[in-house]
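I trust your eye. Have a critical look at both lines of this record:
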Amino acid sequence: MSRIGLKPIAIPAGVDVSINGNAVTVKGPNGTLTMDKHPNISVSINDGEVNVARPNDDKENRALHGLTRALIANMVEGVTNGFKKVLEVNGVGYRVQMQGSNLVMNLGFSHQVTMTAPEGVKIECPSANQIIISGADKQAVGQFAAQVREKRPPEPYKGKGIKYAEEHIRRKEGKAGKK
C-alpha cells in the first residue's frame, strides 16, 4: 500500500487546482504549472484537498500512485513558495556575474562560459562566488542547477569548482612524495 499516494494534498489559499481530462493544472502566486497524469490514475478535488487514487494493486499502478501524488504536491509547493538551489564557486580566479539575463562564469578556461536560464527559472548572483537559482518548477530548477554545476564540478584535491551549498566534498590527500 502506497503511504505517500494515500496522503491528501491540502490546497492553500490563493492556489487553484483544476483537472481537465488527463491534465492537472495548478495556478498560484508564483505562476502556473501543468502536468499530464497517467490515464490509470484518478485525481479528484474534495473539500480543499487533492486526492490521488489507483484502480488496482498492479505493480505499475502502485508506482504511479505515489509518483503522481508527489508531483502534484511539488506543483502546489512550487506555485506557493517556489524552489531554490544555492551554488558556490570555489577556486582562485573563479567568479560569476550576471550580464543582462545571462549568467557569465570565469571558471579557469580560456573562455568565459555563458548560460541562459530556461523559461520559469530565475538566476541571481549576490556575490562573485555564489549563484542562486529559483523558480516554481522543481524539476526545471534542479536540472538547470545541475547543468551549471556540470560546467566545472568540484574536484577532491583542492575543492575547486561549482558545488551545491549543502554539498560536502570528500577531500583526498595529494601525492605523498619521496621520503
